[in-house]
Every structure is written in C-alpha cells, then in structure tokens.
Amino acid sequence: MNSNAFNKFRSVFAHVLLVILSFMCLFFFYILFINATRSHADLQKGFSALPGKYFLTNFMNVANDGTFPMIRGILNSLIVSGCSAAICTYFSSLTAYGLYAYDFKLKKAAFTFIMAILVMPTQVTAMGFLRLITKMGMYDSLLPLIIPAIASPSVFYFMYSYLQSSLPLSLVEAARIDGSGEFMTFNRIVIPIMKPAIAVQAIFTFVGSWNNYFVPALVIQSKDKMTVPILIATLRGADFMSFDSAKIYMMIFVAIVPIIIVYLFLSKYIIAGITLGGVKE
Amino acid sequence: MKRKSIDYSKWGYFFILPFFISFFVFSLIPLADTIRYSFYEYYRSGIKEIGPNFVGMENYVSLLKSDMLKYAGNTFILWIIGFIPQIVIALLLAEWFVDARLKIHGKQFFKVVIYLPNLIMASAFAMLFFTMFSTNGPINSILMNMGLLSKPIDFMGTVFGTRSLVGLMNFLMWFGNTTIMLMAAIMGISPDIFEASELDGCNSFQRFFRITLPLIRPILAYTLITSIIGGLQMFDVPQILTNGQGNPDRTSMTLIMFLNSHLKSKNYGMAGSLSVYLFIVSGILCFIVYRMTNGKDDKGGR
Questions:
Q1: Are B278 and A121 in contact (CB under 8 A)?
Q2: ipTM value for the complex
C-alpha cells in the first residue's frame, strides 16, 4: 500500500518535471513565432502573448533585403546540405560494404584506422584545410563544404553495423552466380537493402550540414555564396540599434523552421535512429 | 577438384578507395600542414606577410604564456555548467520513461519535444537567446510586466549571466539526446534482473543506484567522453552570443573561438600550434572512445 502511494507521488513529480522541461523547450520557439508576426513598433512596446498581423510583411522584408540575402542563403544551404547528405550516405555505404563483404590484406588495418578517427574533431585540421583549398582554387566556393563528406567515419560505422545485422553474404554469392558484376550488386541489391539506414543517416547528415557554422564561415567570403548560419552571424555583427527587430526574429524563424517541419514529420524515425549508431554493449 | 575461387579482394580496395582518398586529401594533408606551420613564425601584420621562418617550439611556449590556459578553463566551465544538469535530468527521465509502474502519459510527445532543440541550428538558437535576453528583449519585458523586476537585468553584461546562458543553451540542446541514449541503454538490461530485484523487495531508489547505474556505466562513460569532445569543440553558441568577443572581459572565450580568431587574422603559426595542442587532447579522448567501442574484442582476448 505504502509503495503504491510512493509510486503515485513519483508519477506526479515526473509529469510535473516533464511539463516544465517541455515548456522550456517550446517557450523560446513560441516567443520567436509571436515576435516574428509583430511589427518593429509593436515590439518596442513590450511583449504580448498573442500573435500580430505582420507575419507576411516581415517575411517580405526579409526576402527583399539585399544586405542579408536570406532566400539565396537558404538555397545555398539546401544545395550544400542536400549534396553532402547524398554523397556522404552513398560513399559511407560503399566503404562499409567494401569492408564487410570482401576479404583483403589491409581490411583489418583500414577498419581499425576508421574506428580510431571516429570522433576526431574537424577543427584541429581547419587551418591546413583552409590553406589547401586556397591552393586548389576552391576558396570561397561551396565545393569544399560538400566533397569532404565522402569520408565520414561515424556514418560509416552506422552503415557497417547495419550491414552486419541485415545483409547475409549468401545474397551476394547468389547475385554473383546470376552473373551480376560487383559494382552492380552494390547498386542494385545492397543499396535497396540499406534504404532504412541511408534514410536515417541522410537526415542526420543533412541537419548537421545545415547547422554547420565553423568551416563555412572560414571558407565563404562573398555574400551570394553565404549559407544560413553565416548570415545569422553577420546579422549578429551588424549595428543593432538601427535594426528592425521584427526582421531579426523573422530571419531566425526562417533559419530554423524548415528543420522543425521536417522533424515533426519524421520524428518517429529520427528518434529511433539516434540510438542505432551508438555503442553496443 | 574444385576450381580455385576468383579473387575478389581488388573490389574491396576499389570500394573503400574514395573514402581514403577523400580522408587523405581533406584531413591528413591539412593535418600535416598544420603541424608543420606550428613550428614557424608566420603571420600577417597589416598587408605585410611575415615568415614563414622556422622558430622551433616558440609558438608552443608563447601560447602557454598567453591566455590559452584561461580559455581552456572557460571552455571547461561552460561545458560543466551545461553537462551536470544534462546528465542528471537525462538519467532521471530515462529511468522514468522505462519504468512501467510509473505510467507516463504522452511518452512519445515528450520524447519528440525534448529532442527538438538538438536539431536547431546552434547559431540561430544563440542569436534568438541574444535578442530575447537583451535589456529590452521579451524576457526582461515579461519579468517586468509580472512585477518581478523594477529595472531590466543586463544578462550579457555579467560573467555569471553570460556563462549561465551558454550553459542553459547547451543543456537544452543536449539533454534530450542523452535521455534517449540512456533510455536505450536501460532497456538493454535484461528484464529478469529487474523482476528478481522486485521479488527481493527492492525499492526504486535501490533499483536505480544498485542495478541500473552500475549496469549502464559503459554507456555513461561513453556519454561523458563524447560530451567532453563536444565541449572541447564548443564554438557556435558563445561565438554568436558574444559576437566573437567572449565578453565580458573574455570570460566566455572558448578554445575554438581563440583558434577562429587566429585563423581570421591569418596568424598561421599560432593557429597551427594551438591546433596541435587540441589535436593531442582530442587524440587521447579518441583513443578512450576507441577502446570503449571495441571493448568486446578485448574481453574476448582476455
């Protein structure tokens, strides 16, 4: 009886804490939304809990602003994130399949090497990276933000674990007997089997690339090539007092809403995907 | 006799080649270049380029004498302010979500909501906090309307305020992710153990501290180390919040912000040796993670 009462108390406490935490997570987005719908003059008067009527006006102001080309930035971000997600998942699958399905002398060494660099921060090589791409003539272009995604150790590890659990090697043998070439087997048989893993990792790579700020800020110089995070950073550096604050909220709004919408549709798969690549004990 | 099977090994090499070429070009060459220039005097003053002149370990020594150690301290403080509440809350939530006796309503909803901030662009999130917590921003306005304040608080004007904001943002962005990781770990524990403990009259405190915690220790350690690596890379949030200055008085300047300012001013020598320091620390941490993810093989060999 006593333990029942205790569990009831625990349950109430758990719900209260969960509601508080959810409130903390959502409250900021609520303010963001409200303030993005109000005019600069309204915002100066103080906070209101109800949305205003200036959402479209603010949006058009942001879209037509030449100093902060937000639409162009979103386009650039989409290109970079989309291409990164595509080549990252394809080549990670290819690498994982190469190490999983074939036996060769350097197999163990290659695998150990990738596992050793699994969580290596990219920042430590940023300086050499910057100098290298300058020498290669890729400074101030979107390419150096995309191509290095070919080598992503953590995505590789995820794909490798997935192959181990879901691709029987007999299937590869059967394809060989039917006369399928090795590369064709990969594209026609292995890739379809890996679709769920590719989808999950494509989402994570896309989001990671969409939010990436450190390397793009070093590489991109000209305004028409800037991605969204760099635009946000230049906004922070701009002279604040003379700025339309409604526009600031609207810019932040456009920067994060695409991801939130995608997340709400795919949350089930995303949450299930978080743990799949983690350590297995 | 059976014919000797065809040698497919060349396909293995062929398939892993793009990864290794890309890694070699975009990571190893830059790393070698970074290490090389860490031994050179090589910077720009005005439009004049000075160097590269070989100076041995001078950059390393002058970094130790500069504010680097202070920035390392800042990075650690900013990380720990976010990490402690993150791990405590995540452990609590994970335990509750898994505990069937608690009957949490709307489990899926809460999971979706607490994970949401993890996907938000850190720089936009920091920008949002900057505008919201500014002296004439909505937070101050709300607090004053409620009569809790007579005059606005200058959150970003104090050391405590700035550091707390960075910690709060890091906490919000990562506690959901950690909760879901730990939940998976707790669900991985055999239900038999929990049933047996219940028969023996184990209460929920004992269950948590005597069974759950010891059994998920490997995942906890993994979370800790990966979080330290993430903390070491902390950049977006303090950079945007303080506009790269680390104000007030550079008390929220992190190591990567320091590296960024050297890179922006094209001080390659200093940036190189700072990178090498960071490389050594993250190399050690990587090794620990490596030992953890490959722990199974080691146990087999024992």
A1: yes
A2: 0.89
